[in-house]
Design a protein that fits this description.
alpha+beta; Adenine-n6-DNA-methyltransferase TaqI, Chain A, domain 2; four-stranded antiparallel β-sheet; three-stranded mixed β-sheet; 11 helices; 40% helix; globular
């Protein structure tokens, strides 16, 4: 558990160490919590994850610029003694939810890797074009789709590219729009509650894990000019961790929260002519981050910032529009499945967090076998 800024708006900063994480070492100002023999570690995890524990930490932490807690304060947290049978029920109950949430995440990551691999094969490595130059049918592709690829290359400023494809600037297909907004941290007259996506939230959503963007309050005019469309891409513009992380603003993104979703002032919004082109550009940017090329557009050292204007000058290879649309449609079912997994995991988390306190208090009875 982090002892400096232990709580941020995304939640309590803690992690559960699993077997596959080992070996690992602690850094400074991180507390290691190891349950005693009479306590189930899974129960302690549920305890730490409870709102009661978070409320306790928020009341005992000290410091303003950098709020912090001590290991003594963590160990002094008091809770009703729970019998071993209840601990087991809590652990089993939480485990059922967590295993399904984790399964959704694993499935989504595999789908994500598949989409990224196919994108690279089609539009970066030109595997289909190479196969056709050798008189072969591209591997795993039917003849109808294969016919959309040329069977030769031509010279360009970026070297050989498929015949009929063009070299353009990223800014020719993706336009930077109005900057983000941060708003107020509490309700004020004439302001509306929104979910404000930060770079860290973009990273979580891109990885199809639960994100908890903060609720902020902004004016109606600020909301109208920053509402997300399915032709938009968000890219994190600051910070060593989030910088360059992206997400395509598919229609399901706004359905994850009851509040309207907007983006913060350290996030850039790029808008494309069509949904399929936004999908293409987002995968292009994701590939640039995975290959670390995105860091050539970072400025500053202590807190790197994205030179988005320089990024939009980057030259890319653009296939014909019909091929972009085919790729988007072919991947559509996979994207829908990933989004379905996210919604299901969010619902499971809400149900788990609502029922767990009742189980820990003994108010809710669940058979251990369940």
């Amino acid at each position: 558990m982090a002892m400096d800024r232990p709580w941020i708006q995304a939640g309590l900063k803690y992690a559960v160490i699993k077997k596959e994480d080992l070996p690992c070492l602690l850094v400074q100002r991180v507390a290691r919590i190891r349950p005693k023999n009479e306590y189930d570690s899974r129960f302690i995890t549920a305890l730490i994850d409870s709102w009661e524990f978070t409320h306790y930490l928020l009341n005992v932490q000290t410091g303003t610029a950098v709020p912090h807690i001590s290991s003594r304060q963590i160990s002094e947290y008091k809770f009703p003694k729970v019998e071993e049978e209840i601990q087991t029920k809590v652990a089993t109950f939480r485990g059922l939810f967590d295993s399904n949430i984790n399964l959704n995440h694993i499935m989504s990551k595999k789908i994500e890797y598949t989409i990224a691999a196919l994108f690279r094969s089609w539009f970066i490595d030109f595997d289909s074009v190479k196969a056709k130059t050798e008189g072969k049918l591209p591997f795993g592709m039917d003849e109808e789709i294969a016919a959309l690829f040329p069977d030769s290359f031509e010279d360009s400023e970026l070297g050989p590219i498929p015949q009929g494809w063009v070299v353009i600037s990223l800014g020719d297909i993706a336009k930077k729009t109005i900057g983000g907004v941060w708003g107020e941290d509490k309700p004020l007259p004439q302001l509306q509650a929104v979910r404000c996506l930060r770079g860290v939230d973009i990273g979580h959503l891109r990885n199809r894990v639960r994100a908890s963007p903060p609720i902020r309050w902004v004016s109606n005019s600020q909301i109208r000019s920053r509402m997300l469309e399915n032709t938009d891409i968000l890219i994190a513009g600051s910070g060593a961790g989030p910088l360059g992380k992206t997400i395509h603003c598919h229609s399901n993104l706004s359905n994850l929260y009851t509040e309207t979703v907007v983006y913060s002032n350290f996030v850039f919004r790029l808008r494309c002519p069509s949904n399929s082109e936004a999908f293409f550009v987002e995968l292009t940017l994701h590939h640039m981050r995975q290959s670390k090329e995105i860091w050539s557009y970072a400025t500053g050292s202590a807190i790197p910032n994205l030179d988005v204007h320089g990024l939009l000058k980057r030259r890319i290879i653009k296939p014909p529009q019909n091929l972009i649309e085919v790729f988007y449609n072919e991947m559509g079912d996979l994207v829908d499945l990933m989004n379905q997994n996210v919604r299901e995991s969010n619902n499971l988390t809400v149900i788990r967090d609502a029922l767990l306190p009742r189980l820990m208090s003994g108010e809710l009875q669940v058979p251990t076998e369940a």
